[in-house]
Amino acid sequence: MKDWAARLKRDTLALWLAYRDPRTPWYAKAAAAAVAVYAFSPIDLIPDFIPVLGYLDDLLLLPLGVALAARLVPVAVMDDCRERAGRELSARPRSAVGAIVVVAIWAAFVAGAAFMLFG
User: Fold this and answer.
1) Is the residue at 115 inside a domain?
2) Is residue 108 part of a domain?
């Protein structure tokens, strides 16, 4: 199950990369963009708080969308994008600015908590 989830994550990123690839036909770009945007969006078609149906999109609709969009993308393009997505997912984050922002937020949180506790 863990491997399946990792492949789904890699293929979703690969679809986003395929969308940006000039070798991808327009109809495949449209499908790839729709699936990738939906997958990375915090908004679900069916909200997760609805019993049983809430996870239907995560367990059924998203994998089917990824499979359909991946079939529309040319095989060579999808293979290249999967390889690139695998490298990007395994690489460490490279943003120094992002790291500084996260550290600053945590430092502000700790300082605020200390101020609240110790006056």
Assistant:
1) no
2) no
Contact in structure between 119 and 44 (CB atoms under 8 Å): no
> Is 25 in a helix, a strand, or coil?
coil
- Sequential pLDDT tens for the chain (119 residues): 788 888 988 999 999 999 999 999 999 999 999 998 888 887 777 777 777 777 777 788 889 999 999 999 999 999 999 999 999 888 766 677 877 888 899 999 999 988 998 97
Q: How many domains in the chain? A: 1
Global pTM reads 0.68
Contact 28, 72 (CB under 8 A): yes
Is there a contact between 24 and 18 (Cβ–Cβ < 8 Å)?
Answer: yes
- Nearest 5°: the CA angle 54, 15, 97 is 90
Report the SS3 class of residue 73.
coil
